[in-house]
Amino acid sequence: MTTNTKTSAKKRTELKQKIEAAEKRNADRSFGDYARGARDGATSFVKEHPIATVAGGLVLGAIVASFLPGKGRKLRKKASARSALMAGALADLAITYGTQFLSGAEKAAKAGQDRASDLGDTLGDGVRSAGKTASRTISDLRSRFH
Questions:
Q1: What are the Cα distances from residue 82, in Å, to 49, 68, 78, 85, 87?
Q2: CA separation (Å) from 54 to 18, 43, 85?
Q3: Which phi and psi angles does 85 have, rounded to 5°?
Q4: Within a domain: residue 92?
Q5: Would 28 be classed as within a structural domain?
Q6: Measured between alpha carbons, how far is residue 102 from residues 1, 83, 94, 109 in Å?
Q7: 105 vs 111: CA distance, rounded Å
Q8: Would residue 75 count as lying in a domain?
Q9: pLDDT digits (tens, 9 = 90+) for 50-87
Q10: Is the pTM of this model over 0.70?
Q11: pLDDT (tens place) for every residue of the chain, 146 residues total
Q12: Residues 20, 25, 31, CA angle at the centre, nearest 5°?
C-alpha cells in the first residue's frame, strides 16, 4: 500500500502544479485576450453556420421589438403606414410613366405608319409618272419609225 500512497501523493502534487500553472496563465491573461478569444469563436461560428446566425438575429430582433413600449409600437405602425403610402405612390408613378411610355410608343408607331404610307404614295406617284413618261416616249419613238 505504500506504493499506492506514494503514487497518489505524486499524482496530487502533479495536479496541484497543473492547477497553479493554469491559475498563473489566467492571471496573466488580460481582458483583451478574453475579448479576442470570444471574437474568434463568434467569427468561426458565423462562418460555419451562416443561416442559423441570420435566423437567430431575426428571432432576437423580433423578441426585442415585442418588448418595446407603446411609443415604439406607434412608431412601427407609422413606419408601416408610411411604407404603404410610399408603395402606393410608387405604383401610381409607375402606372403614369408606363401609360405615358405606351402613349408615346403608340404615337411613334402611328407616325411611322404615316411616313411609310407617305413614302409608299410618293414612290407610287413617281413610278406612275415614270411609267406615263416611258409610255409617251415609246409612243413617240414608234410614231417616228413607222
A1: 35, 20, 6, 5, 8
A2: 41, 13, 29
A3: -65, -45
A4: no
A5: yes
A6: 103, 28, 12, 10
A7: 10
A8: no
A9: 888 888 888 887 777 777 666 666 666 666 777 777 77
A10: no
A11: 566 776 788 888 999 999 888 888 777 777 777 777 778 888 888 888 888 888 888 888 777 777 766 666 666 666 677 777 777 777 777 777 667 776 777 777 777 777 777 777 777 777 777 777 877 777 777 777 76
A12: 135
Q: What CA–CA distance (Å, rounded) separates 136 from 82?
A: 80
pLDDT at 68: 67
Residue pair 53/45 in contact by the 8 Å Cβ criterion: yes
Is residue 54 included in any domain, yes or no? yes
User: DSSP string spanning 41-97?
Assistant: HHHHHHHH-HHHHHHHHHHHHHHHHHTS-HHHHHHHHHHHHHHHHHHHHHHHHHHHH
Domain encompassing residue 28 = 1-67
Dist. CA 80–CA 82, nearest whole Å: 5
> In whole angstroms, how far apart are CA 145 and each of 64, 90, 132, 140, 141?
109, 81, 20, 9, 6
User: What is the number of structural domains in the chain?
Assistant: 1
